[in-house]
Amino acid sequence: MYPTEEPTDAHTERPATPLPSVSRVLQATMSEESRAALRRWEEAMIARHGPDGFAQIKEAMFSVGRELHAAIHRHLLGSAPEAPLSLAADGFWRSVRPALRHVDGAGLLAAERPLRHTQLGYQGVVDCVAPFRSCPMVIEWKTARRPKYSVRELYDNPVQAAAYLGAYNYTHRNAQVDRAAVVVAYESGRPATVHVLSPAECRRHWAAWLQRLLQYRRETDVV
């Protein structure tokens, strides 16, 4: 399914030109509803903290995300002792630990690995591909301050996971994966929420990804 479906008529392999990232495609094709919600949040943050303060907050958020991903990576590889995390990242780490107990590090298939789907023309870095509760799946680690108990609250995260799932399957024809999970870790340290996407849900989000990719091509004149 994932390796061969094309949103448009296309050659077997796309030219060796820089491929857009999954994040770039999703950002460029964001729905008006999502764009408006993001704009309202940014305006509220700027009103509260000022432009410079907001810029610092965003950089701090990115820094915490990088730190958490690095800690998870080390944990899964089991190649080095777990280093102490910063105070800002500690709550997220405590939050994600219960979910990590269900990830089989010995069966790790990919961690922070670049993926390229040269037929469809996109690339990205998948957080993790590993058995989760004994079932191999793509796993994306996310952070949040408020609980996200429904898939709807994840916005484009499931589409992102499906895009990585497709790229992984494209380059691993003999080790296909048909499920994904979005794990949301919380600043408060409360146990992370795990959203497991079934094969049917992954197919639906994959179809949405193909439409977003087609929209991106049309709007950027990529053929």
UniProtKB/TrEMBL annotation:
GO terms for cellular component: mitochondrion. The active site is at D127, E140, K142. GO terms for biological process: mitochondrial DNA repair; mitochondrial DNA replication. Keywords: Exonuclease, Hydrolase, Mitochondrion, Nuclease. Its EC number is 3.1.-.-. One of its GO terms (molecular function) is single-stranded DNA exodeoxyribonuclease activity. It is found in: Mitochondrion. InterPro entries: PDDEXK_AddAB-type. The keyword Nuclease applies. It comes from the Eukaryota. Residues 1-21 are annotated as: Disordered. Residues 107-215 form the PD-(D/E)XK endonuclease-like domain. Metal-dependent single-stranded DNA (ssDNA) exonuclease involved in mitochondrial genome maintenance. Belongs to the MGME1 family. This is Mitochondrial genome maintenance exonuclease 1. It comes from Amphibalanus amphitrite. The gene is Mgme1_0.
